[in-house]
Design a protein that fits this description.
The chain is of the alpha/beta class. The protein contains 14 helices and 13 strands. It has two domains: 384 residues, 3-Layer(aba) Sandwich (Alkaline Phosphatase, subunit A); 93 residues, Arylsulfatase, C-terminal domain. Strands 1, 2, 3, 4, 5, 6, 7, 8 and 9 form a nine-stranded mixed β-sheet that branches.
Length: 497
């Protein structure tokens, strides 16, 4: 028995990937993707089938993870870089104060880039971020040459290497090519290599909180060749296209490598999908590599594990790509919890159907560590949804009835509400509305907003959204109706510089 076990305090391992869809797990029924290690975590743990990112892009999603707050409170309702992160209460900060050795390896995507956000140490790789790549107007202490630890490591092993050597942009969701260097130099392998090294150099007298934060499967779609080969001859299904999707692409937007929509040539799209799936299998194998090392260090059975993604990837669904929009491929994320030591008494191998969100990560991990949850946290601990219950207890745990999501995105800005079985979407710049019966139409193929049979349900959800938006600075509602055309910013005024 090690000293952490004697104290009854588990290590906490948070594994996040960037831009992974909810459905890309073998155990969730995906017809192509192979994820044996994640499947095993779900098989011996609990998988949440209705986990969402309320603001599905990197910056606001990570604000929810760090603070445990809704987007209305943490203030990031869209994607905007270079807005300082001044949150006084954070997940790693609370664990550090409680005596945990806290470490992040990989992506943070905060500002300034080297902001510790409560961690004792950060080994950083945010990936390719345009705002710190430009040579004009960027202070040297923020330039990627100065802040990125992976790039420094890579250049020691491949002199002159850069993040753009493959010619792929960080938002190129429709093009792909294999990784051009040794697999061990891939950023996915690097995160695990550095994480294993943390096991060597951690303080053995303290429990640890390790956030392994991968950049992939976010573009560039550059899996090692061996993983791309796995999907070379796979029967990859075409993306679903709803009756509401825009079918015209007269501007040929689908030919652009970083398009957010359009008709992409079929061969290019299939290869991009294959590369995306290959990146996920590569991640899965590297996660398995770390779990083996964790076991070798004698810490696996003293570690609570959580796996999720900050948002999804539309990957051609409805002729759309990337993220930010509220459709399932973008906003619906995987979430798996596992407790090898049995401390939390999880009902192993089950699927929890309650609607959970990234703001629930902070209170859940604090709860698992026995650390008091701060009053500023608005999420809730998910363990009661995942715990085995007495057979005599037939009552379901009390939980939220719905989730409110949004994203400032120009004329494509959205506000939406869902309970995982139905979804109502409002485009506040145009006034367009959509309604999907997810229980019967999980791929969102039919926009039922004009269906007479759905009128009462649509009015129900519209009234909920009105209540969620009351008092907002943008003036989205007067309390009785939704008001289109209001000016909207990516960050709310209480955190603007």
């Amino acid at each position: 028995m090690n000293r952490n076990e004697e104290r009854g305090r588990p290590n906490v391992l948070l594994i996040t990937v960037d831009q992974m869809r909810f459905d890309c797990l073998s155990i969730a029924g995906h017809p192509v993707v192979e994820t044996p290690n994640l499947d095993e975590l779900a098989r011996t743990g609990v998988r949440f089938s209705r986990a969402y990112s309320a603001t599905p892009t990197c910056v606001p999603a990570r604000a929810a993870i760090f603070t445990g707050q809704s987007q209305r409170t943490h203030g990031r309702v869209g994607y905007q870089d270079r807005v300082p992160w001044n949150y006084p209460v954070t997940l790693p900060g609370e664990l550090a104060k409680a005596g945990y050795h806290t470490q992040c390896i990989g992506k943070m995507h905060v500002y300034p880039a080297r902001n510790l956000m409560g961690f004792h140490n950060v080994v950083l790789h945010d990936g390719y971020l345009h705002h710190n790549r430009n040579f004009h107007g960027i202070p040297m202490q923020e330039h990627y040459d100065q802040v990125d630890d992976y790039l420094q490591w890579l250049r020691e092993r491949a002199p002159g290497a850069d993040l753009i050597d493959t010619g792929l942009d960080c938002n190129a969701s429709t093009v792909a090519r294999p990784w051009h260097l040794d697999e061990m130099k891939h950023p996915t392998n690097w995160v695990v290599t550095q994480s294993i090294d943390f096991l060597r150099r951690r303080d053995p007298g303290k429990p640890f909180f390790l956030w392994m934060s991968f950049v992939r499967p976010h573009p560039p779609f550059d899996p090692p060749q061996a993983y791309l080969d796995l999907y070379e001859d796979a029967d990859i299904p075409d993306p679903p296209v709803g009756d509401w999707a825009q079918g015209d692409d007269s501007s040929l937007e689908g030919l652009a490598p970083t398009t957010g929509k359009g008709l992409v040539p079929k061969r290019r799209l299939r290869r991009a999908m294959a590369a995306y799936y290959a990146l996920i299998t590569h991640l899965d194998h590297q996660i398995g590599r770390f779990l083996q090392a964790l076991n070798e260090y004698g810490e696996l059975h003293n570690t609570v594990i959580m796996f999720t993604s900050d948002h999804g990837e539309l990957l051609g669904d409805h002729h759309l790509f990337r993220k930010a929009l509220p459709y399932e491929g973008s906003a619906h994320v995987p979430l798996i919890v596992n407790d090898p030591g049995g401390r939390l008494h999880l009902k192993q191998g089950t699927v929890a159907d309650e609607v959970v969100e990234l703001r629930d990560i902070m209170p859940s991990l604090l709860d698992a560590a026995g650390v008091q949850i701060p009053e500023s946290v608005e999420g809730d601990s998910i363990w009661r949804l995942a715990a085995a219950r007495n057979e005599a207890d037939t009552a379901s745990p009390v939980w939220r009835s719905h989730l409110h999501g949004e994203h400032a995105y120009g004329h494509q800005s959205t506000q939406w509400v869902t309970d995982g079985t139905e979804k109502f979407i409002w485009y506040p710049q145009t006034g367009e509305e959509q309604f999907f019966n997810l229980a019967e139409d999980p791929m969102e193929l039919h926009n039922a907003i004009s269906d007479e049979a759905c009128r009462d349900r649509i009015e129900h959800w519209r009234s909920i959204l009105i209540r969620e938006l009351e008092g907002r600075e943008e003036g989205f509602t007067d309390g009785e109706r939704l008001i289109a055309g209001r000016k909207q910013a990516a960050v709310l005024s209480h955190i603007r510089v």
